[in-house]
Amino acid sequence: MQILFRKNTNLIAFCLLINALFYLAKSQTCILNYSAVTTGAQQTEKYLPLLKGKRVAVLTNISGTIGKTSIVDTLLSLKIKVVKVFGPEHGFRGNTEAGDKVANDKDIKTGLPIISLYGNNKRPSQEQLKDVDVVLFDIQDVGVRFYTYISTMCYAMEACAEMKKEFVVLDRPNPNGFYIDGPVMENKYMGFLGLHKVPVVYGLTIGEYAIMANKEGWLKKKIKCKLKVIPLLNYKRTCSYQLPVPPSPNLPTIQSILLYPSLGLFEGTKASVGRGTDLPFQVVGITKPIQGTYTFMPTASLVSNNPKHKGLICYGLNLSENVYLSQHPSKIEIKWLIQLAELDGGNDFFDKNFNYHCGNDTLVKQIYLKQSEVAIRKSWQKSIDQYKKIRSKYLLYPDF
Predict the structure, then answer these.
(1) Exposed, middle or buried: residue 18 (CB in 10 Å: 0-12, 13-18, 19+)?
(2) Cα–Cα distance for residue pair 224/158, rounded to 1 Å
(3) pTM above 0.85, yes or no
(4) What is the mean predicted confidence (pLDDT) over 146-152?
(5) What is d(CA 43, CA 66) in angstroms, rounded to the nearest whole number?
(6) Which helix (H) or strand (E) holds 91?
(7) What's the rounded Cα separation, in Å, for the pair 281 and 258?
(8) Would 280 disulfide with which of 250, 347, 359, 390, CB 3.0-4.6 Å?
(9) Buried b vs exposed e over 131-153: b needs ≥16 C-beta within 10 Å?
(10) How far apart are CA 275 and CA 337, in angstroms?
């Protein structure tokens, strides 16, 4: 009996060890090199036939590359008739700070006209599309609703639908595509920071999002775009990807990209998210002195000309090596938002832009009422479940 008990104990211990190792392996962040996936842009044989003999406008930025070569330069070398470039927030070559004016210009390298789709001109006009047959979209997204590239894409799709122009999306992996979380956008706050009823983290590639917006009738007046998506090869939705080019100036690292869904919400608060430091979107702080906290000082830089709290000491959190990054993130960490709001202690911690980032005016009230994180998350769940049913119809790749 004693021997049998010892054997059973060993068996139980072995099973617990296996379960622990399985859980640990499952929780570790899977980060793949970009070379593990074949992007839509790399598959020229699939989209060149859609472009040959046509006048092409390319909607892209610094992330739209094949290897180290811009998609625009590649198309020109392949004798495709590119007539103009549309540049989103941060411009075509990617050197403009978030929120700054992006001016129309001429590309020094190619001589092509660059038309800004930011500021007052967020969608191509009829005049700008008059000499175009097809718009090719190639931009690296990060899978967060208030990251404005999906809005730029949808506005361009609407314009193409109205003008009966073709629209081709070269798909790219979503580095935050392995979970879904956050409040779903409400009608009252729809705009450039969120056009549709999707959560903050929506779990789709940009190509899948384009199909969903088109087929769900989410484009203006439910108009349908003549859309073609060139899918990825070997894409694993359960993994993040080490991007070869920063998708925007203040998201320079995989840490900043993984933290962006959580720290991006601070853009609508009194807090600095580290613009003007070596750790943008990896630190967060307020100017109110808080004993024992991490400190940093934003200064003007090439990618942040006038960062929030420039020249002032900020007190808060350094999240660049947080355990959140060594495990697979499965949720937006609103605890940091709650923590900084409490440390600030004022009733003006959130500004008018917060609700547009968040998608509702409920979260601010919940935080000021000191509701628990569990209660706050529960209030999102019904809308998230409804979104998941819609999303499931448009998946091009195996789900997580």
Answers:
(1) exposed
(2) 8
(3) yes
(4) 97
(5) 10
(6) none
(7) 9
(8) 250
(9) ebbbbbbbbbbbbbbbbbbbbbb
(10) 17
State the pLDDT at residue 184: 98
Environment class of residue 276 by beta-carbon count within 10 Å: exposed (0-12), middle (13-18) or buried (19+)? buried
Residue type at position 160: C
**What's at 275, amino acid-wise?**
R
Asked if 279 contacts 320 with a C-beta cutoff of 8 angstroms, the reply is: yes
126 close to 93: Cβ distance less than 8 angstroms: no
How do beta strands 113-116 and 82-87 pair? Answer: parallel
DSSP label at residue 327: B
Residue with tokens 């003008």: 163
d(CA 254, CA 328): 13
How far apart are the C-alpha atoms of 343 and 341, rounded to whole Å? 6
The pair phi, psi for residue 204, each rounded to 5°, is -135, 150
Q: What percent of the chain is predicted at pLDDT more than 70?
A: 89
Confidence at residue 91, expressed as pLDDT on a 0 to 100 scale: 63
Number of Cβ atoms within 10 Å of the Cβ of 93: 16
* DSSP labels, 196-209: SS--SB----HHHH
Q: 3-state SS of the chain: helix, strand, coil percent to 5?
A: 35, 15, 50
Q: How far apart are the first and last CA of the chain?
A: 45
β-sheet bridge partners, residue 314: 296
- Quick one: average pLDDT of 287-304? 92
Residue appearing with tokens 């979260």: 363
d(CA 247, CA 89): 11
Q: How many CB atoms lie within 10 A of CB 48?
A: 13
What one-letter code names the amino acid at 341?
A
Query: Which residues, including other chains, have CB under 8 Å from residue 183's CB and lie 6 or more apart?
Result: 199, 200, 358, 359, 360, 362, 363, 379, 380, 383
Helix (H, G, I), strand (E, B) or coil at 156: helix
How far is 266 from 354, CA to CA, in rounded Å?
Answer: 8
228 in Cβ contact with 169 (< 8 Å): yes
pLDDT over 90 at 294, yes or no: yes
Beta bridge partners of residue 113, listed in sequence order: 106
Q: Identify which of 312, 308, 313, 315 has the alpha carbon closest to the alpha carbon of residue 294.
A: 315
Helix, strand, or coil (residue 392): helix
- Tokens standing for residue 24: 């640990």
Query: What's the pLDDT at 28?
Result: 61
Q: Which amino acid is at 86?
A: F
Which candidate, 123, 174, 170, 185, places its Cα nearest to that of 151? 123
